[in-house]
C-alpha cells in the first residue's frame, strides 16, 4: 500500500534549506507525492479558464493546497480527492487573486526560493514571476528525484502487476496474429487488450519496428507504415506497456512471420544473450549504469552487429516511462537496490530481419530481478 503522507513528509524534509515553496502541476511528480491522478493524455491542448494555477502548492511546514479550475474539479473528478486542501476557481474568478490568497497563508520570506516542477508551463512561470518578482526559481523535480529513484517493495509489487497485465495482453494478441494483418490492426489489438486486462491504457504510444527484405524498417513514419500488409518473411518488433495505478510498464518481444532464416535466429539469440548479460550486471552496490550498458553491448559488438544496436541499453522507469538514471555510456550513477530499469537490447537492420526484447528489471545485490519472464524463445507464426 502506498502511503502518500510518508512521501510528502520526506519531501518536505528535503525542502528545508533548499526551498520555501514548491509547485507541482498535474504530473507524475504530483501523483507520486499526493495520489492526485493523471488522466489519459490528449494529443492537442485542452484549456480551462485559469488552468495555469492547477497544481499543488507546498511548503516545508504546510500541507498541500490544490487550486483547481471548476472544470477540472467537476468534470475530471479532482474535486473528490481526499486528504488535500482543494480550492476551486470559478469560471469567472480571478486566478491571480486566488494564488495570492494561498501564498499569503504561507508566510513566505521577502525573497523566497520557489521550487517548481520541470513540467510547469511557461504561462505559470510568467504569472508567478509577476506575483513573486523577487523569487528565485529552482527545480522541484530535482529535489523529488532523490525519493523517486528508489522504488519501495510496494511500488515494485505494483509494477510487477503492470507487467502481468502487459504479458496477459500480449498473450491474447499473439493468439490472434496471422499473416496478412496490417501493423495498424495489430497495434489496435494491443491497445484494446491492455485496457481489457485492467490497464488505464498504454503507457506510451504502442510502437513497432518491423523489418524484412520486403518490409524495410522505417522509424517515425507511422501513417505510411501502419497500412502495410505483413506477409512472411518479416520480423515484428513489439514495444508497448500498461499503465497501472500510476505506474508505467515497458515491454518488448519479437515475432517472426514465416520460417526464420539462420541469420534471423542468430540475431534474435544475440539479443537475448545481450539482455541476459545486462540483467546479470545489474548488481546494486557493485556496478554503475554505464558498466551495465557495456556488459550487454559487448555481446552484440563482438558478434559484429554493434552499429545496429542504435540506442542506450535502458532507462529508469516508474511513474514515468523514462526516468533517470540511464543505462548508457557516460552515466556513472552507482546502482542502488530498488532502482527499476528497462533492459532492452536490439539489433535493428533496415533491409533484413531485426530483433528486440525488453523487460523491467529491479537492481539487486546479486544481479537484476526481471518482472516479466514470458516468451524467451522466438515466437514464430
SSE order and pairing:
Blueprint: H1 4-15, E1 21-24, H2 28-34, E2 56-58, E3 65-69, H3 70-75, E4 85-89, H4 95-104, E5 113-116, H5 122-131, E6 136-139, H6 140-148, H7 153-174, H8 183-196, E7 207-208, H9 222-225, E8 234-240, E9 243-244, E10 247-248, E11 251-257, H10 262-281, H11 289-302, E12 314-316, E13 323-327, E14 340-343, E15 346-347, E16 355-356, E17 359-362, E18 369-370, E19 379-380
Parallel strand pairs: 1-5, 3-4, 5-6, 11-19
Antiparallel strand pairs: 1-2, 7-8, 8-11, 9-10, 12-13, 14-17, 15-16, 17-18
Helix pairs in contact: 7-8, 10-11
Q: Biggest sheet: strands side by side, in what order?
A: 2-1-5-6
Question: What profile does the largest beta sheet have?
Answer: 4 strands, mixed
Compute the number of strand runs: 19
Mean pLDDT: 95
Beta-strand content estimate: 15-25%
Q: How many helices does DSSP assign?
A: 11
Which structural class matches the secondary elements? alpha/beta
Spans of at least 5 consecutive residues whose pLDDT stays below 50 are: none
* Number of structural units classed as domains: 2
Q: Mind telling me which CATH architecture of the largest domain this is? A: Alpha-Beta Complex
* SSE series: HEHEEHEHEHEHHHEHEEEEHHEEEEEEEE
CATH class of the largest domain: Alpha Beta
- Rg calculated over all Cα atoms: 23 Å
Please name the CATH topology of the largest domain. Creatine Amidinohydrolase
